[in-house]
Amino acid sequence: MVASFATQYHLFSRDIAELPYTEFYRLLAGIMYETPLGNIISIRSEKDNNVIKNFSPEQKKIRRDWMKHNSKHNNKTMDIKLFQSALKDAFGGN
User: Fold this and answer.
1) pTM of the model
2) Between 36-45 and 2-9, two packed helices, what is the crossing angle to 10 degrees?
3) pLDDT tens, 41-54?
4) pLDDT in tens, 17-65
5) HSE-up of residue 43 (Cα within 13 Å, Cβ side)
6) What's the distance, CA 37 to chain centroid?
7) Which of 40, 58, 73, 84 is surrounded by the most beta carbons within 10 Å?
């Protein structure tokens, strides 16, 4: 995540740690696919089987691991709330 914030926003660990949660969340939501995190998100969210078929072995592993994780956590709303809560705890949000 730090690499993505550095790439897109020129922010580094120290800068990110000082961001208010709402600002961090806004920046995270705007991460572009050209960043390391954005690339992983695009791999995980790809739906086109023709694109998936042409993934590299590493991309296929990223997607397979994500799908395996999701099969264990069917309640996506709960996953989002847990993720948001973890971010709030990590960055001192209210």
Assistant:
1) 0.64
2) 110
3) 999 999 999 999 99
4) 999 999 999 999 999 989 999 999 999 999 999 999 999 999 999 999 9
5) 21
6) 5
7) 40
